[in-house]
Each structure stands twice: as C-alpha cells, then as structure tokens.
C-alpha cells in the first residue's frame, strides 16, 4: 500500500493501534499523530528477528509510540496485548506496569509505623480481603475502623447471615494459578464464544438465575465480548499478581508466625486430573507457572497418598504436586479481628454502610450507615462483596460486581488421613473444578471440606434457581463419593440437598478484580473488590495496593484492575444485540504487509 493511501486510511479511521510487519513511513506517522491530537496511539511492529529491535520503547518520528514483538504463531495476540497495556497506562494516567513492579521493594516492610502518620481509615466490609488490608494498615500506623453489615464472625451466627468469607466454609486455598480467567482463549465462532453464562449448570453452564433482568443481560454481554487475545493478557496479569501475593504471604508467615498459629496451615497442594490429556497439559501449565513440585502416575498417587487408594479406579489419571497452602479461614478471620482490637482498631458489626456522601467538589466526605450514623475518616476502603453495590454509586466500578455462587460439603478425614489438600479437575462435569481442603471442625475433628461449582446469581445474590443449585450440590457429592467412598458413606450426605451450604462470590464480567481510587476530602476513597475466585489468594497484594494508594505511591494493581480497563478497549456496551467475541480494540486496524491476521 502506498504511503499516501495508508496515510489517508489512517486519517479516516483514526485508529489508536496499528499492528504491522513493516516500518511505517515518517510521513504516515506524523499524519497519524496530527489527526489523533492528544489521544494515545501506539504502533506495534511484528519482526522476524529480535535483533531488529532498535526502537523498542522509543517514540518514532511523528510522536507515535513504537513497541516490538517477535513473529510467531500468536504474534497478533501478543501485539494486541502489548498495545492494550500501553494504552491502559496512558488512559489511567498511571506509570507503566513494568515500572510499577520495579518500583516495589522486593519485600514490603512488615511494619513501618510512619506510613500512616496517624491518619484514619474507614474500611467497609469485614471479609478476609479487607481484614488483611486492615491488618497491614494498622501495622503501618493508620487508625482503623471497620464497618460490617453482618454479625461478628466470632459469634458463629448461622452461615446465611454472613458474606462470602464467613458464610462459606472454613477453608481457603492459595496456588499460583488461582482466579484464572474463564473466557475462551482460542478463537471460536462468535455465536459459540464465552457462553458459560448462557446455560444452566445442568447443561454444563453457570447460569443459575431464577429471573433474568436488564442488569444480568448487560453483564453477560460484557462477559461474552472479551476476545481471546485480551483474555490471555488478563490471565497473565492475574498470575503475576498471584506471584507477588505468594511472596507477601510467605513474608507475613515468616515475620509474624503467631498470626498463623492454630489455623491448620497445610503447605503444597495435590492437583488430580480425571482426564489423561488434561493431566499432561496440567504438568506443563504448572511448570510454566513455576508451581510444579512433582507429578505422579495413578499407581504412584495411590502409593504416596494412601488416603486416595480407596478412590474409584478411574477417579484420576494422574496428580501434580504444586506450591501453595490451605488454611481454616474462619480461624484466621477470628485471629485477625482479635489482633485488630488489641491494636486499638474499632470494629462495628451489624452496621451496613448505606451511602458515601460527597462535598461540593465531589470528594467523599463521609459515610452514612443504615443506623443513621455518620462516619468520617481521612481515607475510605470499600471491599463490597456482592452486597455493597450502594457504596459504588458514582464510581466506575458501579454495576460491575455480580454474584457467582459455589457449594460446600464436608466428609470426615478418615485414616489413613489425607495430609495434602487437593484440587480436582473433571472435564465435562458440573463440578468441573473442586477444592478439597484438609481442615478441622469446631470440635477439633479432622474433616475434608469440598468447595466447587459456579452458579451465576446476577446483581441479586438471592436470585437462585433452587433446582440448579441442587444439581451443583449433587455433582460435588459425586466427586466426594468417587474419591473417598468410606468417608462419604459415613457423612450420610443427601446428594442435591436443597439446604446445602453455599456462598456467593463477587465476580466481574472481565474476570479481573476491581481497584479504583477516587478523591476524599482529606485523602482517598478506594474500591478493592470483585476478585472472582481469587480474593483470599490475592489478599496480601490487594492490601499492598491499598497501602500504596493511600500513600500516593503507584502499584501494578492500580492499572491492571482499573474498572475501565475492558471498556476502554471494547467500548461501552449498551444493553443491545450481542457483540462478537472477536471484537478488536477501538478502531484498531492491521496495516501494511501484516503477515499474521489479527483476530
């Protein structure tokens, strides 16, 4: 294509991104810069040899940013991911993520009392994420108040009275591949892409809605239109945050082991795969994530993990031991609350935050509760779960958090005891992914806690088709029966029990968490929520991101979990016709001599 024709095309289309295998003429770049004005633009070149990279990270003539990727089967995906990351930093006025990572200390100081300078922080929500955040803030000198709509978790009210952290069972797990993105990551026909929320669990989908309204239809549309290249980028970013969080968990355990006394901490997780191909792929995936410790054929699983010897002959095709840990999360929550009280934090339960009040400049000036109390602080941190939408009014995060439930059941941990917690993968099964956590009950008896299932409840966590909920519970019961038949029989479980325990996790259509910082009268108003299946796993890195936000320092999460990230790429979607899953970034166009089609 001649330079003049290309320049005219770019002037008409006004793309933010051009992916090309050729060097664009300076005249074209200059014209592009002129027509775009102050809007961010980036040209991503696909080159055959890394030695050709001589302008990576620099601005080309005409003021257009240039980034380089090497050729390969997925070059187009990688090129778009690089472009999206660049535009994200520009649009959020944040430093590049790479710079934010390098700006973090290798280890966050466990205590730095000068950080808070006696500033006050009101934390809304007493789930495990906000309690870990509160603990870190107290240790850095902040004066902390926690508001929670539910009863004090230490009083052991009935589970429906609580949110996800305490309403779920007494088990949580950390691995390096938690909270992975659930969008399709390879191209499929648009009408078949990202359809998990279109089908009920009984048809291997996730839709458990009793009624579907406009909010649910719009949210499902947001989920459906995330293209594979963007889903891959999201997954990479989630795992990067997991790695950072794993480092912070390890630091915390080493620096303050007393916080983890008596929470039944167990290290290293055994992942079981029912399907042989999935087992083979799992070995590679865990190796790539830096999590792999060992792998086991079925006979070796039975020999080295005798608790699994009684499992059905086809219950697993192999196992992979990975880095990670599990603990009794209710016990950790109780310990954190005790420590916060001992440190002088104020805890208020059965008090729901109702409204964030703003001053004439639009800054948050205080929080009004349903009791009629007015709380004022320098800073505010909202971890809303699925019940806190009212606190997200007038934020970019509003409307982005819906619910996805998971079910629980327990069986006794019979001798020979299972010593390592499990992750169980069953392709094509309603309970496709299950966590089996080694735990103790309230009387100190050994038990195994099964948690599994995905049931989309939409904007209302009570909007549940009970028959589909029973299908999830029956599927988990089937997993328990196949792995531990004697324990299952002893537990006298009723498969599909309509009164079975479940919790509703805060989920986003992007599958990313949310991190938003807005001004308060004397500080910052931070939203940190929507972590899908990764709230517990990422709790320390969320806390670190909050600490940095209150201190005015950058953190990668500020950019990676920005609430406009997906919408800035895909555009704001009205509640209308479906958008094909292969939608490209706004006005993105492949340019001359593009050897790899952009999908």
What are the SSEs and their pairings?
Layout: H1 3-13, E1 17-20, H2 26-36, E2 42-47, E3 65-70, H3 75-91, H4 97-103, E4 120-124, H5 128-139, E5 143-147, H6 164-167, E6 172-175, H7 214-224, H8 228-255, E7 266-273, H9 276-288, E8 292-296, H10 298-304, E9 318-327, H11 329-342, E10 346-348, E11 353-358, E12 364-369, E13 374-375, E14 379-382, E15 401-412, E16 422-425, E17 433-440, E18 446-458, H12 466-483, H13 485-491, E19 502-508, E20 514-519, E21 524-529, H14 535-551, H15 556-560, H16 565-570, E22 589-590
Parallel strand pairs: 1-2, 1-22, 2-3, 4-5, 4-14, 5-10, 7-16, 14-21
Antiparallel strand pairs: 6-9, 7-9, 8-9, 11-12, 12-13, 15-18, 15-19, 16-17, 17-18, 20-21
Helix pairs in contact: 1-2, 3-8, 5-11, 5-14, 8-14, 12-13
Distance between the terminal alpha carbons, to the nearest Å? 21 Å
Can you summarize the main beta sheet?
A: 9 strands, mixed
Instruction: Say how many strands there are.
Output: 22
DSSP summary: helix tally: 16
Rg of Cα set: 25 Å
The mean pLDDT is 91
Residue share in helix: 25-40%
Overall outline: globular
- Beta-strand residue percentage: 15-25%
Summing up helix and strand content along with how strands pair, one would put the structural category as: alpha/beta
Low-confidence stretches: 55-59, 575-599
């Amino acid at each position: 294509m001649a330079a003049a024709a290309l320049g005219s095309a770019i002037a008409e289309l006004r793309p933010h991104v051009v992916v090309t295998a050729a060097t664009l003429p300076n005249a074209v770049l200059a014209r592009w810069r002129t027509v775009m004005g102050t809007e961010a633009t980036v040209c991503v070149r696909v080159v055959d040899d890394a030695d050709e990279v001589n302008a990576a990270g620099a601005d080309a003539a005409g003021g257009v940013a240039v980034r380089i990727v090497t050729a390969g089967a997925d070059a187009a995906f990688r090129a778009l991911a690089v472009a999206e990351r660049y535009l994200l930093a520009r649009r959020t006025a944040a430093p590049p993520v790479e710079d934010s990572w390098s700006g973090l200390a290798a280890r966050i100081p466990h205590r730095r009392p000068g950080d808070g300078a006696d500033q006050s922080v009101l934390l809304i929500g007493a789930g495990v994420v906000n309690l870990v955040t509160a603990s870190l803030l107290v240790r850095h000198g902040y004066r902390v108040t926690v508001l929670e709509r539910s009863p004090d978790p230490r009083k052991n009210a009935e589970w429906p009275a609580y949110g996800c952290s305490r309403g779920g069972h007494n088990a949580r797990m950390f691995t390096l591949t938690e909270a992975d993105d659930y969008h399709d990551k390879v191209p499929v026909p648009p009408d078949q892409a990202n359809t998990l929320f279109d089908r009920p669990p009984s048809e291997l989908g996730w839709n458990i809605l009793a009624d579907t309204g406009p909010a649910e239809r719009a949210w499902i549309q947001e989920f459906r239109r995330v293209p594979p290249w963007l889903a891959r980028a999201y997954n990479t970013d989630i795992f990067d945050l997991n790695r950072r969080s794993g480092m912070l968990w390890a630091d915390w355990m080493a620096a303050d082991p007393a916080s983890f006394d008596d929470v039944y901490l167990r290290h290293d997780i055994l992942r079981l795969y029912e399907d042989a191909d999935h087992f083979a792929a799992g070995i590679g995936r865990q190796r790539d994530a830096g999590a792999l410790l060992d792998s086991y054929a079925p006979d070796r699983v039975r020999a080295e993990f005798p608790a699994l010897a009684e499992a059905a002959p086809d219950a697993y095709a192999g196992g992979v031991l990975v880095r990670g840990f599990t603990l009794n999360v209710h016990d950790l929550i109780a310990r954190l609350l005790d420590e916060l009280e001992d440190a002088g934090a104020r805890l208020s339960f059965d008090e729901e935050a109702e409204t964030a009040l703003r001053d004439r400049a639009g800054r948050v000036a205080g929080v009004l509760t349903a009791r009629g109390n007015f709380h004022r602080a320098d800073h505010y941190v909202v971890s809303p779960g699925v019940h806190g939408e009212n606190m997200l009014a007038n934020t970019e995060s509003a409307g982005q958090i819906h619910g996805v439930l998971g079910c629980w059941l327990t069986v006794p941990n019979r001798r020979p005891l299972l010593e390592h917690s499990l992750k169980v993968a069953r392709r094509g099964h309603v309970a496709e992914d299950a966590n089996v956590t080694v735990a103790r009950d309230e009387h100190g008896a050994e038990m195994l806690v099964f948690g599994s299932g995905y049931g989309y409840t939409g904007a209302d966590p009570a909007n549940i088709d009970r028959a589909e909920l029973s299908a999830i519970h029956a599927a988990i019961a089937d997993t328990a029966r196949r792995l531990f038949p004697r324990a299952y029989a002893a537990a006298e479980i009723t498969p599909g029990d309509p009164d079975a325990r479940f919790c509703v996790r805060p989920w986003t259509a992007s599958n990313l968490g949310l991190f938003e910082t807005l001004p308060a009268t004397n500080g910052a108003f931070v939203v940190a929520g929507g972590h899908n299946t990764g709230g517990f796993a990422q709790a320390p890195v969320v806390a670190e991101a909050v600490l940095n936000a209150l201190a005015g320092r950058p953190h990668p999460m500020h950019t990676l979990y920005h609430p406009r990230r997906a919408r800035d790429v895909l555009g704001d979607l009205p509640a209308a016709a479906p958008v094909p899953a292969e939608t490209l970034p706004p006005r993105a166009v492949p340019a001359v001599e593009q050897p790899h089609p952009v999908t």
